[in-house]
Amino acid sequence: MEDDWLAGQDEGGSQPRRGLNLRQIEVFRAIMLAGSVSGAGRMLHVSQPAISRMLSLTEDRLGFKLFERQRTRLFPTPEARRLFIEVEGLYEGMERVNDLARNLARSGSGSLRIVASATYGERLVPMALQRLVPRNPGAQISCRNVTYDELTARFLTGDADIGISMTAPEHANLDAAELGRDPLVCLMPATHPLAREPVVRPGDLPGTAWIGYPPVAPLGRVLAAWMGAEAAASAAIEVHSPITAISFAQQGLGAALVVRWSLPPSLADGIVLRPLDPDASVGIWAVSSRIEPLPVLAKRFLTALGNVLRAGPPHQI
Questions:
Q1: What is the percent of the chain with per-residue pLDDT over 90, rounded to a whole number?
Q2: Highest mean pLDDT among 13-22, 68-77, 253-262
Q3: Distance of alpha carbon 291 from alpha carbon 298, whole angstroms
Q4: Domain spans, the chain
């Protein structure tokens, strides 16, 4: 008799064949809370046979019984009660994660590091932040105007989350997406000879006082394509940024070709704008890392920036 009883036993201490997955843990917890397969099915919106199959698979994986079956009720074994303590700890941790995620979604708390060319850091970026900040109280935002060369370096040293530039950097670890096009206009004193013209053409600038850019600068390359070889040679003054060009033009130093999103909210008295013929424009590029995921706050910033762009640049002409 004793030998027959022993024949049906093992020595214990066997290892589970495989670990449990999250779905099996979810089903086990539901049965513990509901006390029956049918109740667990209702909790999880799953059929009773599916719950029974999952329970059978779970016990097979573990190598021991989780429940003793008495009529329609399931009574947890001591092993199941031990396991349930750990499962509840797991669910409490998941709830903390979900609470944090919900709080972040509501408050927008977190940090955002923006780098931008001065062209867009003076006007476009602040207008986007004007939309973003009130909807994300508690957010910590850092903005820095950088040159084209510095922009790439900021990402490679981990000092930037999002960049706004008129040129897409060429680097294997950076992504760039064009958000829109920014048309060039001619800004000049009303006393400038070209102020009498309805549009400014490539051949109009040589022989007049005008402000240009180095050939290697983003706008220098655009002007070289628009004007040809005379783009750099005929400029009376050379600057590196449209922001500087605007200041010089408003001081009466000549005509300046600038992008519309670089223009200030109001122009000095006696300053006029003229469109170009043919049109010329640059891209407005959002730059991000291919290595690090884009933070939620950066995605919201890009949404706000897109809304600003759709509303149109200042100084319609």
A1: 54
A2: 253-262
A3: 15
A4: 11-105, 110-179+283-311, 182-281
- Give residue 13's pLDDT: 47
Considering the segment(s) 11-105 as one domain, its CATH architecture is Orthogonal Bundle (1.10)
| Chain-centroid distance, C-alpha 71 | 56
- Assigned token pair, 201: 């053409």
**How far, in Å, CA of 165 to CA of 146, rounded?**
9
Q: DSSP state, 87?
A: H
- DSSP type of residue 265: S
Q: How far is CA 168 from the centre of its chain?
A: 16
Average pLDDT in the 276-287 region? 95
Question: How far, in Å, CA of 213 to CA of 218, rounded?
Answer: 9
Phi, psi of 14 (to 5 degrees): -70, 150
pLDDT at 3 over 80: no
Q: Do domains 110-179+283-311 and 182-281 have the same CATH topology?
A: yes
Among candidate residues 310, 300, 304, 308, the one with its CA nearest the CA of residue 161: 300
Residues 200-248: tens digit of each pLDDT: 999 999 889 999 998 888 898 999 899 886 666 678 899 999 999 999 9
Q: What was the pLDDT predicted at 301?
A: 96
Backbone dihedral angles phi then psi of residue 255, each to the nearest 5 degrees: -85, 145
What CATH number labels 182-281? 3.40.190.10
Predicted TM-score (pTM) of this structure: 0.66
CA atoms within 13 A on the CB side of 146: 22
Classify 110-179+283-311 by CATH class. alpha beta
DSSP E strand boundaries for 88-168: 110-116, 139-145, 162-165
Q: Indicate the residue type of 190.
A: A
